[in-house]
Amino acid sequence: MPVISHRGIRTWPPTWTWTGKGEDKQPHGEAGVLRKVRTSVVGPKEPGAMTHDNRIYLFMDYRDSEFVGCLILDDAAACRQIGTVLSALRGMTIKQIGDIDLEHLL
């Protein structure tokens, strides 16, 4: 995975937060299996927009528990593209996904 960052801060791999399903097994880094992807792109001129951040929410299973992580990107187009690619990779391990070269999307 290329350096995915927001304002110069790396966002890959995401920090994982326990969703309350299963036990909080505290995964770190590229652990678990990707189960669901949700992309949120908010433009700066959209009515009611509270933020200008482009986010990809990743839901993964790790040792019978569920966690969510968030990737924040500076570029809306790259966020959409990477979100689409990640959606197609559901079922793969986070490690396998991290080894894929997506540099051409940034």
Give the end-to-end Cα distance, rounded to a whole number of Å.
11 Å
Q: What's the order of the H and E elements?
A: EEEEEEHH
**Gyration radius from CA atoms, angstroms:** 14 Å
Number of separate domains: 1
> Would you tell me the overall average pLDDT?
84
Question: What proportion of the residues is helical, as a percent range?
Answer: 10-25%
Shape: globular
Give your account of this protein's structure.
The chain is an alpha+beta fold and 106 residues long. The chain has one domain. Helices cover 17% and strands 31% of the residues. The strands form two sheets. Strands 3-6-5-4 form a four-stranded antiparallel beta sheet, with helices on one face. A hairpin with a 2-residue loop joins strand 5 and strand 6. The radius of gyration is 14 Å and the shape is globular. The N and C termini lie close together (11 Å). 22% of the residues are buried.
Explain the layout of strands and helices.
Layout: E1 5-6, E2 9-10, E3 17-18, E4 33-41, E5 54-62, E6 65-73, H1 76-88, H2 94-98
Antiparallel strand pairs: 1-2, 3-6, 4-5, 5-6
Brief sketch in words of this structure:
By secondary structure, this protein is of the alpha+beta class. 17% of the residues lie in helices and 31% in strands.
